[in-house]
Amino acid sequence: MNDQQAQELRGTPVVGGKAYGPVVRPGERVAPVHDTATIPEDAREAEQSRFVDAAGLVAARLRERASHASGAAAEVLIATAGLAEDRGWIGAAGKLISSGSSAASAATAATDQFAALFTKLGGLMAERVTDLNDVRDRVVAELLGQPEPGVPVPTEPSVLCADDLAPADTAGLDPKLVTALVTRLGGPTSHTAIIARQLGIPCIVAVADLDEVPAGTLVLVDGTAGTVVLEPDPEQAQAAVDESRREAELVAGWSGPGHTADGHEAAILANVADGVSARAATAYPVEGVGLFRTELAFLDSAEAPTVAEQTELYREVLEAFGGKKVVVRTLDAGSDKPLKFVDHGTEANPALGVRGNRITARHPEIRAGQLDAIAAAARETGSTPWVMAPMIASADEAAEFAAQVRGRGLVAGVMVEIPSAAILASSILAEVDFVSIGTNDLTQYTMAADRMSADLAELTDPWQPAVLALISMVAEAGKRTGKPVGVCGEAAADPLLACVLVGLGVTSLSSAPAASAAVGAKLGGVTLDACRAAASAALATASPAAAREAATAALAG
Ligand code: PEP
Ligand code: MG
Q: How many angstroms separate the alpha carbon of residue 351 from the centre of ligand 2?
């Protein structure tokens, strides 16, 4: 570390807010065992039982802790207990023990096999490797008669720092004692991130050099900026934490609708997946639905849903928001969301393959049936949903889609997720009534970085100035044509970025409904001019960190 890094470490911000306190670290883990000694044949059965008993005990302890936890914490503990009882894993270790491995060595080797497989599968599976290694460490500690590894219970409010945190480490944490989570590894969808969101404590992942910060070091964590300041001025650090608490109170009191302090409107909308999530979203201060991901309801369907089945689903969502704006997205099948009833074929690069609107060339009946169902649900509920297509790359594709949608009396739009669509936003907007920017995929395709990769967290950050430049092009095209330009990727859940987006000219912000109040409260505290200044300042930077800093400074005036 050079001097400057010693003062401030940076990572990927996951949950906003500030915390100040000493660093605590999880207890030492046992080193993975790779012994080469052979267990005599007559002792192998006993060794087998020792392994099964240890795995069973670890699973039972995790279940016991789950019974004292609730919500996501309980779910992750139960899922980890399931890994300790996984038949495939136990079978793989059992085979090794039968051929002479010690139980501890077999647990390690079987975990390595599964970890390699999970890593190869990538995405969410790769992020489960931490959970699997956690189970191994607990089982090996048990076999060696050592204490179970894990997080100590701090005696004062502390910042938990680790390489990565397994569910069993994070579930059941007391947010009064563990006031922030910071990890060296992990991505925005890792368990650490999920638990931090549930506990409502700041969280930063992918912080390089974190292992060089010893336990006991006083740190100020800024989960919005993604910074960890080492040994800051105690008074200033406490003042920063108090200020962030006041902001949290403003958020708690915010009830919509979305506008800047000087009255410039920007609708705050919800992303939903079905009737249940739509009804749940109405409990938040949102003005409608900005993205209804229809494919999520059909991930397990072996057969294509009938028009009647789909009509029922769409009707539920339209009814939940009776008369308010609802933007329905046609099936975004393929890549990370393959549908069994769509013949995706074998693709070397599914993210660049036949996904989203592109499946229509092979299966025109799927999109036609879906549009018929949306139109039927619209008639039954007396509403006029907006309908948009995912993965549009050209103005021709937008025109073809718009003709189908308008032919059914609906409002037509497309998503801007591919850089070509951003570059040609003017021609695309000439064909449709609105666009909505999917910043998750737009970032992935602009930066050529897999959105599921934990290693590429810096590149898959929507604050990348190249991504902001493309959003700016789309927003400018929206201003010229007077047509709405929404954002419906997770970027819209980041309060600071939301101000930049509004400053760029974005007209609505749609994301997980739980983010709505934080976004609305932040926007309500700044003027449109300040948002514009923040947008210009962020656009002029060369990195996500610099863009965040520049936007923060510009908004502070
Ligand atoms: C996006 O890509 O930003 C988006 C909203 O679509 P999804 O996350 O469903 O791909
Ligand atoms: Mg997308």
A: 10
